[in-house]
Specification:
The protein is an alpha/beta fold. The chain has 12 helices and 17 strands. Bound molecules: pyridoxal-5'-phosphate (PLP).
């Protein structure tokens, strides 16, 4: 093992350990396991020492050969599990053909994916980008452009967007300002103006917040990061109605809830609500960095140069997205997601009853267990020590977002480990 590093990092490297691991395929991988903060990554989150080296289906392996059952799948990203054959094939085939002709040219996978998204969502225009935050940033720009008079029906300059308390829309400066996450408040001042936050699930509160400057209402159909908060059934339809009455745009952030996650292609489908703008990310790329903003024909109002990006809509990523859609957007696949959801939900409810916890929430394979008097973080750590990866999205909330093609035996295995952790 040869480490290329300037002499001054030698001292800190000595504090770490080197581990050589023999893998099942006979290959030896030598890995630097950081036991100290002395790796070269900017500190943005507290990570365990594991270095993940391989994933297959619902399983993830670290460099020491420890296998984990993965019930978060990159935060609801790997909708078909780790390294699915169908996406590997789509990626390999496209990699032989064309990676990036530049966004100034058409490419076939991008147009195929836009067409498939139109057919599944009814929204005829797509803008592809690389992250959910970028898709939401794009939605905010489009709404402001439309509100400034670019669209028919816009009277005067309107720019204000009503968003919800507890919401999460991303980590760019503007999407942080749009988010109603309490921890973001006041960070990186000055904060981008133009957002009014109202309680989630309360359409009256939205109505009260409308001013002559309001141009849009933006929300997650189910708040994900906030702890899988499901609003009242009629909420989205009420907001659609309000937006119609006041000439506002309805923006659905389906970055987490879209692409089959809730047992429907899009969470908005449940209430038959069509947003004017929908954003997608996470599951859209099945693990690859791909996101999209979809909008109606009348919102196709950006001028040339208003929006774009070097990697946006590149064929390598959009070919994967097209393969994801072909797989997920079938009645059989979505029926199966609902069956798996019932299986997981039933098991979680049994654990909830058995251990006296508060409730099971969510839809499809976006589920949360609300704990009573227990730390979700400690529970997630205990589960990981027993080989199960869960997410503690709030201090007392565990979130599960397995692959949409997880098996029932993997679900039972996860429930067994969770039972153990809840007992201890
Ligand atoms: C994850 C998420 C985002 C941000 O997506 P990134 O790809 O991390 O930028 C935005 N909105 C919702 C609802 C999300 O869950």
């Amino acid at each position: 093992m040869h480490v290329h590093a300037p002499p001054w990092v030698g001292a800190s490297l000595l504090l770490g350990t080197f581990a050589a691991t023999l893998h099942a395929d006979g290959g030896t991988v030598t890995t630097y396991l950081s036991q100290t903060p002395d790796n070269n990554l900017l500190t943005i989150t507290a990570r365990p020492a594991d270095v993940m080296v391989r994933g297959q289906g619902s399983y993830l392996w670290n460099s020491e050969g420890v296998r984990y059952l993965d019930m978060i799948q990159g935060w609801a990203v790997n909708c078909l599990g780790h390294a699915p054959r169908v996406l590997n094939d789509a990626l390999a085939a496209q990699a032989q053909l064309l990676w990036n002709p530049s966004p100034a040219f058409h490419n076939d996978p991008q147009m195929r994916l836009a067409r498939a998204l139109f057919e599944s969502s009814g929204l005829s225009r797509a803008f592809f980008c690389n992250s959910g935050a970028e898709a939401n940033e794009s939605a905010i720009k489009l709404a402001r452009k439309w509100g400034a008079g670019a669209g028919q029906g816009a009277a005067g300059i309107r720019h204000e967007i009503i968003t919800t308390i507890g919401s999460f829309h991303g980590r760019t400066l503007t999407t942080m300002a749009a988010s109603g996450k309490p921890a973001f408040r006041g960070l990186f001042a000055p904060t981008m103006p133009g957002f009014r936050h109202v309680p989630f699930g309360d359409s009256k509160a939205v109505e009260t917040a409308i001013t002559p400057q309001t141009v849009a209402v933006m929300l997650e159909p189910i708040q994900g990061e906030a702890g899988v908060i499901v609003p009242p059934t009629e909420y989205l339809a009420q907001l659609r109605q309000l937006c119609n009455e006041h000439g506002l745009l309805l923006i659905a952030d389906e970055v987490q809830t879209g692409i089959g996650r809730t047992g429907r292609m899009f969470a908005c489908d449940k209430s038959n609500t069509s947003p004017d703008i929908m954003t997608l990310g996470k599951g859209l790329g099945g693990g690859a960095p791909l996101a999209a903003m979809l909008c109606t024909e009348q919102l196709n109002c950006f001028s040339t140069g208003d929006q774009g990006g070097t990697f946006n809509g590149n064929p390598l990523m959009t070919a994967i997205g097209a393969a994801v859609l072909a797989e997920v957007n079938t009645p059989d696949f979505l029926t199966r997601v609902n069956e798996l959801s019932q299986c997981l939900r039933k098991g979680l409810q049994q654990l909830c009853d058995k251990h006296g916890h508060v409730e099971v929430r969510g839809e499809g394979l976006l589920l949360a267990l609300e704990l009573r008097g227990a730390s979700a973080g400690a529970m997630a750590r205990s589960a990981r020590a027993n080989g199960l990866i869960l997410n503690a999205c709030q201090p007392t909330t565990l979130r599960l977002m397995p692959a949409l093609n997880v098996s029932e035996s993997e679900i039972q295995q996860a429930l067994g480990i969770l039972d153990q952790s809840l007992r201890s």
